[in-house]
Amino acid sequence: MQPLSAEQQEKIRELFDGAESVTGLRLCLHDRLGRTGLPPRFRVHSHPACVAAKAKDEPACVQFDVRETGRALAGAAAGRIQTCPFGHTEAVVPVFCEGLQAGVLFAGPCWTGKGAPPHAALIRPAGPGWLPDRHVMLRAVATELGRLLSGRQDPTPASRRQRILTFLHDRLAEPVTLGELAVAVGLSPSRTGHLVRELFGMTFPRLVYSVKLREAARLLASTDLTIGEVAQHVGFVDPNYFTRVFSQEYGVSPKQYRRQFPAEA
What we know:
Blueprint lengths: L5 H18 L2 E6 L16 H25 L7 E4 L5 E9 L2 E11 L19 H21 L6 H14 L7 H8 L3 H12 L3 H19 L4 H7 L5 H12 L3 H6 L6
Antiparallel strand pairs: 1-4, 2-3, 3-4
């Protein structure tokens, strides 16, 4: 394989910086190819809790992270959420380059056990879905990293546009941030914001509302869901606020909009 260019290495560093900012977790890559150009803090487990654990028993850490995790991921392309011998919980995902496993990507650690965490720097997940959500984000980072390592061309505008729309449709009922989208498309938040403007001609918050309201209009026209149910489906907690925003977008209220599409017998 050809060495990565300075530009490709910079994109990888931007990808990791953005992912750490969004997930709130440390990223570490066990790089089997040695081609990423990542600084040391991304190539070793540098979280204070990990440093303290390695000071106590580094062989146990190496045995688990390198050997046991490597074997476990051999047939698990989606990765997993795991807890190390020191009680630290992390998300792990294999990175593939041209069909071969090029490394393992870690995000963590955090504390999911009972009682006080063994190290003050360990954070607790904010809820039951917090860590699984970050596992999904890590998979997106691993996919983009594999693309960069293989030297494949940047996605076309059409494919990126579809990727953004798919991401937003998958998160219709949830709050979503520009940083989360940045992880999904493998860019920094600032570059993602510029990309959204280039592809859609509007800001990210405006695009989020546009996607939600288009889906709401479709549901109003084609289903018998109540207006409150439609609002909830697209992420509006307050039906009155949904009605106000929908009316501003379409010039008529949700009820008036639905009347334009009478149900067929």
